[in-house]
């Protein structure tokens, strides 16, 4: 698989992913615990942000976490060791060509991964292959078309849309959350549940608002800056004003922010 990750592999992106997992833990992981002895595959573990949450919440399950990036795996291993987690093993592997036999795992977990793939149905079908009959897959993805904030300006909207455009031009789907049901169905899963997981933040919860805007959203958008400018999607002055305006949505008393993720659970027939 060609590795064409829109957000890149900077130290700031590593920090964003790790902070994001803590901020969104209850929202995204609630209801996802695995029984003792379960063999769980985490596809596309990246720097281990979701791995440490998974392993801590299901301490008697056994996790195999794979990623195509050796540098990301090294970071994930370091974080897992620092957290004292002994129920995870890491392996370099391409999610489009998994080196496991059919039915090797009881459960599969994938979070913020298939939006970055050119063939999401193919990836899901490959994950189904290594899942035992009756086993579950949990897929969590965002939907960049669901993002709203106040105060909204023309420049902040342009900057946000530039991220969407860059990711789409890479052949990936920044709006994939809304499509999880048909994607899982097309891959041959029985759908158990698909539900929106939304966050709204304002001055009543300044910690959440700061986390959402300044630790997740703005750093994520910033990863598209270089490509957006190179491609002429937005000019430098518009970008700088738009980012500043977007940051204002995380400032009390007037700022507000809304975003929706989608969580889907399917079963292998």
List the helices and strands and how they pair.
Blueprint: H1 11-23, H2 25-29, E1 39-43, H3 49-57, E2 62-67, H4 70-82, E3 88-92, E4 105-111, H5 120-129, E5 131-142, E6 148-150, H6 154-169, H7 180-186, E7 190-201, H8 206-222, H9 225-230, H10 236-248, E8 256-267
Parallel strand pairs: 1-2, 1-4, 2-3, 4-5
Antiparallel strand pairs: 5-8, 6-8, 7-8
Helix pairs in contact: 1-8, 6-10
Mind explaining what this structure looks like?
The protein is α/β, with parallel strands linked by helices. The chain has one domain: Rossmann fold (3-Layer(aba) Sandwich), CATH 3.40.50.150. The protein has helices at 11-23, 25-29, 49-57, 70-82, 120-129, 154-169, 180-186, 206-222, 225-230, 236-248, and strands spanning 39-43, 62-67, 88-92, 105-111, 131-142, 148-150, 190-201, 256-267. Strands 1, 2, 3, 4, 5, 6, 7 and 8 form an eight-stranded mixed sheet that branches. Helix 1 (11-23) runs antiparallel to helix 8 and helix 6 (154-169) crosses helix 10 (236-248).
